[in-house]
């Protein structure tokens, strides 16, 4: 039949993004307007500022996505929008925009869970099929998820305190590095010695697939503080390398455990921290040894974007599972 064209919209945090994808996997456009420079001044995302920026940007970003794809509003088959979890004021902007398009053009509206979007970034890259285990690591999430089939998700474990990306951002801040801290620490870590300073790893109970990063975060902050009190300064690259080694160790070993527990042979990584070079390298090494396949999205699809949202909507589009125009935004939302 006719190819499907889905407009995706993502405004859950500090990126205003719109994308058009064809038949669930072909990215015709993926426009991302980042507010990162604005939030850098505050050392993190300020919700009220983010919402106002989304209002300012959303129509331009949607227009650009359509134009770049060479698609008219009338050509669209459906509109997909992130409706949670995230900053509720930020989400509302995208939800309102999505509803307006769906109503004006009488096309289906599909609300998408942000984490499902991150997982589906891997299907845009092509290749992998469920059953699989997804490691979702971002500024707000650290989760291991079992995906038996398309659109079906089951939590295996999650963080009990800080998310991995959050730990990166907080450690970076305590080292006087800019926001977002992940990419900066990742780069610095490659110039440092991971064994110079040993930081703790929180394995939790035997067999647990949960995570905890707040102890590690405090250990880094204490080490910096104690050195300062002694009138010394720790080598930033060594701090970054030691911290990263500890995060990556735990993420990779728990993923291996999840693979053993579920018996799957495919792993996908999702979320902003999936861009981490240390994580990508170590996971590939362990996967080769354990005999499973691990896949990370291309760097450009790791952080928040609308193409992944449109991709996650596609199985629902095919099944005819749509939302009504009373769709609301939710700060927290079960997967
Ligand atoms: O998925 P994302 O764009 O937004 C959320 O939904 O949270 O993830 C952003 C997070 C930030 O905490 C950022 O520091 C982290 O991903 N991040 C990284 C890297 N690139 C981004 N963390 C570690 N290494 C990286 N290379
Ligand atoms: Zn995200």
Automatic annotation (TrEMBL):
The keyword Nucleotidyltransferase appears for this protein: no
Localization: Cytoplasm
Family statement: Belongs to the KAE1 / TsaD family.
InterPro entries for the chain: ATPase_NBD, Gcp-like_dom, KAE1/TsaD, TsaD
Domain Gcp-like, chain residue ranges per copy: 26-310
Positions with a binding annotation for substrate: 136-140, 169, 182, 186, 276
Cofactor or coenzyme needed: Fe(2+)
Alphabetical list of HAMAP family matching this protein: TsaD
Gene Ontology molecular functions: tRNA N(6)-L-threonylcarbamoyladenine synthase activity
Function: Required for the formation of a threonylcarbamoyl group on adenosine at position 37 (t(6)A37) in tRNAs that read codons beginning with adenine. Is involved in the transfer of the threonylcarbamoyl moiety of threonylcarbamoyl-AMP (TC-AMP) to the N6 group of A37, together with TsaE and TsaB. TsaD likely plays a direct catalytic role in this reaction.
Organism this protein belongs to: Effusibacillus consociatus
TM region(s), chain numbering: none
Top EC class of this enzyme: transferase
Name of the molecule in the record: tRNA N6-adenosine threonylcarbamoyltransferase
Residues holding Fe cation: 114, 118, 304
Catalytic activity: L-threonylcarbamoyladenylate + adenosine(37) in tRNA = N(6)-L-threonylcarbamoyladenosine(37) in tRNA + AMP + H(+)
